[in-house]
Design goal:
The complex is a heterodimer of chains A (157) and B (106). Chain A has 157 residues and is α/β, with parallel strands linked by helices. In chain A, 37% of the residues lie in helices and 25% in strands. In chain B, 42% of the residues lie in helices and 26% in strands. In chain B, strands 3-2-1-4-5 form a 5-stranded mixed β-sheet. Classes of the chains: A alpha/beta (157), B alpha/beta (106).
């Protein structure tokens, strides 16, 4: 039987920070990579950060409405995972929409991973298309609740 | 309108699936039907059948990279946008496409 996976399998509570104090995009990426490194997700923080910036160079990862989704496809990722940061201050972030970002969802994907874990990331991205979920993500104060919010599937499956 | 399309982004992780979601939702809202194939890092999902392509009024390619099998759409009206356009203003995009198609028919 195929193993059922849940969003909780790719977000560790220690990789959620709902009051990040960083004030620049560089600091956010650095702090989020540090969370992932400490959680045992990365084999090399520096290499992962390099790959995040490679993706940044290819196009804006800000979505508008205060949300950004930087992501690194990297050999330095041991297990495909996600970090979530909500910053207390607005962060200047290249965006396809308007304005700065405050809610940053960072995807860390192993370069060769084609498993269900990557499907979960896609599902998370889709849930960010739902305004009510995004609104709740901006308000909630509980890491577990963040994980639960992402577990809700978008309206159109 | 009957819409078919392909979504594909650079990393094939997030924008591909958001573009699909936004296009399908917008189509539903406007009373169109849309089937969007995703070409992502996990491979191709919701593949378009030759029948679906034949029946479609328009093909939307919401892509930032080269798509596989573009020759399937030969002879069709193909609109090419980036995933960003599909994610940011999907309703506006579809309204514009519909207007352009109607203008062509007149």
């Amino acid at each position: 039987m195929e193993e059922e996976l849940f969003i909780g399998d790719i977000i560790q509570e220690s990789c959620v920070n709902l009051h990040m104090q960083a004030t620049t995009k560089e600091e956010v990426i650095e702090e989020m990579a540090t969370m992932l490194m400490k959680a045992g997700v990365l084999s090399s923080k520096e290499e992962f950060i390099k790959d995040v910036y490679l993706r940044e160079a290819e196009g804006a990862t800000g979505l508008g409405d205060g949300v950004a989704i930087p992501h690194g496809k990297s050999d330095a990722v041991i297990r495909t995972s996600v970090a979530v940061a909500r910053c207390d201050q607005d962060i200047e972030w290249e965006s396809i929409g308007e304005g700065p970002s405050r809610l940053i969802i960072m995807f860390a994907v192993n370069t060769n991973d084609k498993s269900k874990l990557v499907t979960l990331l896609a599902q998370m991205a889709v849930s960010l298309c739902d305004e009510t979920i995004v609104q709740k993500l901006f308000q909630c104060e509980d890491s577990q609740e963040v994980i639960q919010l992402f577990s809700k599937k978008g309206e159109v499956a | 309108m009957k819409i078919v399309g392909v979504a594909a982004c650079t990393a094939g992780i997030a924008h591909t699936y958001m573009a699909k979601e936004k296009l399908v939702s917008a189509a539903k809202r406007l009373g169109h039907t849309a089937k969007i194939e995703t070409q992502g890092t996990i491979g191709t999902e919701d593949s378009l059948t030759p029948e679906e392509i034949a029946e479609a009024d328009v093909v939307i390619l919401a892509v930032d990279v080269k798509v596989n099998g573009e020759n399937r759409f030969k002879g069709k009206t193909v609109i090419r946008v980036g995933t960003a356009a599909a994610i940011k203003n999907p309703v506006e995009l579809l309204v514009k496409i519909e207007k352009a198609l109607n203008a062509n028919e007149d």
